[in-house]
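ok posting inputs for the calcium ion job
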Amino acid sequence: MKKKALLLMLFMMFISTSALSQNTIYGTVTGDVQEDVTITLNSVSPSATETTTGSDGTYSFSELANGDYTVTPSLAGYSFTPANTPVTISGSDVTGIDFTSVADVIDDDIDDDGVLSEDDECEGTPAGVIIDPSNGCSIEQLVPCNGNWKNHGQYESAFTQTVNSFIKQKLIAKEEKGALMKEVASSDCGKLASEYTVVCDRAQAFAGRILSGRHTIMLTKA
Ligand SMILES: [Ca+2]
Ligand SMILES: [Ca+2]
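and the output
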């Protein structure tokens, strides 16, 4: 009986030091945020468990059996380096499973023109160009050279109106109008040559010739 009791005791000791080994993973989160970061511990068994970091950024998972684990930090609005860390427990505590946090940068003014993207009707405004702060559009964006203009005159008139509106809002000086209009007048914007190619449709030309004695010229948008 004595021998059996001794064996049982030895067996219990074996159990407590191996299969039931109770170890702890320790780590710290530093960086832009350290408190209240969710730390998830994944393992095959038991299933995932989680904790949160304290005010000093530390966390721990205790009473862990030997095995392979993965530690993953997460908090909305932040990224962590490394994104996760694999940990193998083999009869002793594991320390230094640390992470660095960086706040995610949310670009709420994509073209950097001072008008938030949610209010910006013209994205892609070039740097340094004067815009209408009510819609984030430059004159060139409001009156694009490659717009669907009937002719150069229509383009020029739309450009003039927009320049006048910019002057009225004191976005540009009155004195700048002359130079702007000169530039517009000498541009090809809205001119047929730049917007359309002249093609001759044979069937139409033939019909046209019969009806009027002239070739029909068709304008097709480039
Ligand atoms: Ca913008
Ligand atoms: Ca813009």
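notes: Residues 111, 113, 115, 120, 122-123, 125, 131, 136 surround calcium ion (ligand 2) (CB under 6 Å). The mean pLDDT is 83.
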